[in-house]
Amino acid sequence: MKKILLSCFLFALCFQLKAETGYELWLRYQALQDQALLSSYRQQISNIYMEGSSETIKIAREELLNGLSVMLQKKIPSVSVASASTASLFISARTSSFPSGSGIKELLQQTGDEGFVIHTQKINQQNRIFIAGNTDQAILYGVFHFLRLLQTQQPISSLQIVSVPKVKLRMLNHWDNMNRTVERGYAGFSLWNWHTLPGYIDPRYIDYARANASIGINGTVLTNVNANATILTPTYLEKVKALADAFRPYGIKVYLTARFSAPIEIGRLKTADPLDPQVRQWWKDKVKEIYQYVPDFGGFVVKANSEGQPGPQDYKRSHSDGANMLAEAVAPFKGIIMWRAFVYSAEKNVDRHKQAYDEFVPLDGAFNKNVMVQVKNGAIDFMPREPFHPLFGAMPKTPLMMEFQVTQEYLGQATNLVYLGPLFKECLDSDTYSNGKGSTVAKMLDGSFNKEQTLTGITGVANIGTDVNWCGHPFAQANWYALGRLAWDHSLSAEKIADEWLRMTYSNHPTFLQTASKLMMESRDVFVQYSNPNGLHHIMGTGHHYGPAPWVSNLNRPDWNPVYYHKADSLGIGFNRTATGSNALEQYHPEARKIWENMNTCEEKNLLWFHHVPWTFKMKSGRSLWDELCFNYYTGAAKVKSMQQAWASLKPYVDQQRHEQVRMLLTVQHEEAIWWRNACLLYFQTFSKQPIPANYEKPDKTLDYYKSLRFPLAPGNGN
Ligand code: GCW
Fold first, then answer.
1. In angstroms, what is the span from residue 2 Cα to ligand 1's centroid?
2. Alpha-carbon gap, residue 106 to 136, rounded angstroms
3. Binned average pLDDT, 10 residues per bin, the chain of 719 residues
4. CA–CA separation, 450 vs 400, rounded Å?
5. Helix, strand, or coil here: 101?
6. How many Å apart are CA 88 and CA 91, to the nearest integer?
7. Most-buried pick from 190, 259, 261, 481 (CB within 10 A)?
8. How far is it, in rounded angstroms, from Cα 516 to Cα 520?
9. CB 170 within 8 A of CB 219
10. SS3 of 448, please?
11. What global pTM score does this model have?
12. CA–CA separation, 554 and 558 (whole Å)
């Protein structure tokens, strides 16, 4: 009987689920089905008073009224100022509007420009909910948070929320080219249609801004760090202005990438030497011009002397000379420079892991006040698993900006379900020990140890494109969401963020949540396990970075070759970064490096990152290293099968269109996992000379077959 009832219920559930494209993202307000909750919410939100009339307030009001009317299936009336003092939901950015004795005024002293307060209080026997902030922007954030509480079906009868962003700059970096291709983009083309701008404001720009505002993102870098100077010409500044105008009411500032050689390319100067007075003047004039178009322009991100980009070193000047020249130009307008630390040189015969640190640590203290150094989470390059970058904690006089990669360049691109919350957290929670135990990367970023630090930030390389669901893989939206949420509050757990996202994007049903959350939480480890287990890294296909190619050894620069990173030979595999090898470990604080420095005690997930380990080395499992690698590659691939099964079991809770898309992609992912497994093991076996244990099915293709695969038109690679 129970079974029949359950199937009827599930059938009814399926029936109701209309096809969805995923365009709505997590802002997918749904009519509440739970009657008890519905009546409780309706009772607590009987009417609204929202003070103010700015564009931002209008947006907040519309969002709130629309969200509530759908979720509560009822139009919630707005009351006039005369009845404001009895409104059940009272929202204002004016401290004086709150009843004395409510304590709101005091709380607002802690919330700065963007933080908000959401409080439920009993006044004259009536429960009232207050949303308060010091600015209209804070109100918008508070409203989105309140809506999130309802979307995720939280109780609202005794709210005591004071939420203040932990870092000031919460940004996206778009690696969007001006011809609309997206470097490392797997979700279609660039959202920015430069050709139809400024005249046509695609409604999608607004939806983009709204989605970002809902998770607290307040800055966007429109252009690729591999920059094109044309963006700085008047024709394009006009277009940039149109985007900035569209984003402004959502609290999103626009930034651009500055091509260091722009004075030559569009300024007709003979040099871009940062110490040349004409060059300095050119940038000053250019910046002044930009601010005429965009009065609140945020500033520049710069990739200089990195992977062929021009930079100050072309003129024998330092990174700080280059950054400070630009910093001086934007300073009068309160702009900032985010100077990237992603540098490594072809000429230097030094472990690439060490180069950014070697280059930047001596410059600590040399940068102007409005410069941040933007550092990737790890020292190599957004690998599936990477120890934290040794620069964190090593430049106490320089504000560092965290650069995460939201787009899954090395993490299965848009075919693999990989939730990056755990990756971001693993890095943020790593202990640098630079100021004693507990000096986590997150605390290095948010100024915990330096109260004078005014610039703090976290940015993510966006995974957004013209695909109808924005990010290609339906679950890739969770990575955009997680970046925003963690930039706002790095203390949130990856589980909590996954739970919120799942509830809003799919369903609040407990069975769904339990299975789907597990699926997400394990997904990154699963990907690592079948692609780069035990600290292997940079063994992907050349150029497009799609799929495995650990055998590649013929690229011009040694450190572009996978063989440089895994160093497999007849004795073993892995990169010796200890004192007997490249000694990259010395760049970490002695306490921090303890978990890695000894091969016998090194955490196994990073073992081959730091050590060249004999094939016969005994792992904690009791297996030899070779057998452990086999175990991991096989187990990882097998886990994708389990992911497929788990997803299949969720069919009753997900509309057919989105369910089917994920189902098909998981099938692709499984094939890709087997491809990684077979290609890597067959190749490494040529060194280990050991068999794949007999209990595993034998690879059905040869190493030569895997080596012969070519993907000249794979996306994201400038095609
Ligand atoms: O991860 C590498 C990418 C490049 C990228 C570079 C960088 C924008 O493969 O495509 O260039 O990093 O971060 O500058």
1. 55
2. 18
3. 50 66 97 97 97 97 98 96 94 92 94 98 91 98 98 97 98 98 98 98 98 99 98 98 98 98 98 98 98 98 96 98 98 98 87 97 98 98 98 98 98 98 98 98 97 96 98 98 99 98 98 98 98 98 97 92 98 98 98 98 98 98 98 98 98 97 98 98 98 97 98 87
4. 12
5. coil
6. 10
7. 259
8. 6
9. yes
10. coil
11. 0.97
12. 8
Q: What SS3 state is found at 54?
A: coil
- 19: which 2 tokens? 């096809």
The residues assigned a catalytic role are 307, 381, 409
The per-residue pLDDT for range 23-55, each reduced to its tens digit, is 999 999 999 999 999 999 999 999 999 999 999
Residue type present at position 600: N
Q: Is 417 helix (H, G, I), strand (E, B) or coil?
A: coil
Q: 165 Cβ partners below 8 Å, 6+ apart?
A: 114, 115, 216, 487, 488, 489
Atom of ligand 1 nearest to the CA of 716: 10
656 lines ligand 1 (CB under 6 A): no
Q: Which two tokens stand for residue 402?
A: 């965290």
661 ligand 1 Cβ < 6 A: no
Distance 649 CA to ligand 1 centre (A): 38
Residue bearing tokens 């139809």: 196
Asked if residues 92 and 174 have their Cβ atoms less than 8 Å apart, the reply is no
CA distances from 40 to 37, 72, 150, 343, 427 (A): 5, 10, 11, 56, 41
Amino acid sitting at position 657: Q
Indicate which residue's Cα is closest to atom 13 of ligand 1.
342
User: Would you say 254 and 294 are in contact if contact means Cβ atoms under 8 Å apart?
Assistant: yes
Before 198, cis peptide (omega within 30)? Answer: yes
**CA dist., res. 395 & res. 360, Å (int):** 8
Q: What Cα–Cα distance (Å) separates residue 440 from each residue in 260, 269, 521? A: 33, 45, 22
Between CA 465 and CA 475 the distance in angstroms is 14
Alpha carbon distance, N-terminus to C-terminus of the chain: 58
